[in-house]
Amino acid sequence: MVARTDQTRDPAVVTDLAATRLGEAAFRRELSRLDDAGFDEPSLLPGWTRAHLVAHVGYNARALSRLVTWADTGVEHPMYSSPEARLAEIDLGATLRPQALRSLAEHAAIELDVRWRDLPGERWGARVRTAQGRDVPASETLWLRQREVWLHAVDLSTGLRVRDLPEEFLLRLLEDVLGLWDRRGDDVGVRLEREDGVGSWGAGDAGAVVTGDLADLVQWATGRGQDGLEWTGGAPRQAPRWL
N or C: which terminus of the chain has fewer CB atoms within 10 Å of its end residue's CB? Predict the structure, then answer.
């Protein structure tokens, strides 16, 4: 039997596919470290148990599969019917037994990967709409999934930390967060600076400067704490909402 391979040959898409699959492997690894009793314990996301988190990651894969189907067929398949339906699905999923949640996360991720694999090269530029209402090419589904699996692998609280994530991912994520704030018109009033001096973000006349290593800056920007940061020109503050 001849092995089936990715249909796309676009270098950028191929690179993103590899990065996304690496993130999927990281999430699977952290989930494998979680025993069944731990599903009812809190995740690092306020108000969510680990069961909520695993259900969310599984259903997110299904939602992104709908976008890939949309790109492939040209027939609209929204990620969710409504924000309320999305939350209700997660709440219901969190009541599943641990083995069912493990199966959901695994099988949904496999289905999504197969849809990516079989998507013809010319369809990766087809336009679809995210749950936030953004009109994006199908290739953006790869980045959307990367964000989910890498960050939520940390949120499972099984040992992986933000600083363990690939630097390329952290840089892209920080720019993604800052870009969203800018598009939304959030008045951040903070300049972010890497303590190693190799990167800074924000207006030069920002009222405050926060300095730290890349991982700590990402952790703050995504609402995951302020450890390791130094503030000058203003008091420490919470980052604006991201997603």
Answer: N
